[in-house]
Amino acid sequence: MSQFHPSRRTFLGTSLLAGAIVHAADSPPAGASAPPKLARRPQPPYRVWFQPRLWHRDTSLYAHMTVDASGWLDPQLADSVGMTALDWAYGLNHPTAKGPDYWQHACSRNGRAHPRKTTTSKFISAGIAIDEWVPPAQPDNEKWLAEGLRAGRKESPDVFIAIWSTEPTPALFELARDGTVDLIIIEGYTHSVKPGHSTTWDGALRRCEKFAEAKVLEKTIFSFGHITAEKSHRGEHLKQKWLHEHAGELKRRFPAMPGVAFFQPDCPDTPEQRDLIRFCDRLSAELWPDTKQE
What we know:
This protein is an alpha/beta fold.
């Protein structure tokens, strides 16, 4: 995902934010501020989107989404309708990190406090979505990121940590095994308008096999992308039939995976685009349904 502009961190700038529904809380004593509300922590199955760009226009397109792992949605707004929005954070692509402090702070309650740049917090997001596990921008980034996340987990055991990954390394597997990381999302994009931003289906499966061999599939999901009705650089359209067949293949080959994800790029809002989003949303619920309550 490193090829995309940091605008992925931008929060919804619409009037919808002003009308966000906040859960009722006991009134604080006179003159005292109410403690910030803590967001719900995601639980399997994970039905994840990166940049659900049309959510504020038509929430029904993403009716079964449980997690926004991009920093696209306001966490308090998402919480008000029963979903979780994670904060965005740099991964190994951080260009100017000086040590583990950046990632340790991102995990902290202060680092997850909303609204931003105020002295009074009203809401604490559930966690962070780290963008992303790729060849590091600086030689020590892998060491610093791991140290920062472990320190952040120790200080804030409630934090939910998700990491987007292309090619994993042993350090990433160990973060999953020791309980530091809650969820790893494999970037298996086979469809891209621009060349150089996609892989083949065989390449995507090869990435999945690495996580299977590392025995961390119970914390790993696959992301389809790019979810766009535009033609790819090869001149092909992303077909619903193809998505259904290949999602089913993932379910059969890697049944331990606790969900699925979709990457939505910046693309035109068209009827075809909405149909594709709606299909992906329904597919996620069909193959990774809610756990039945006893």
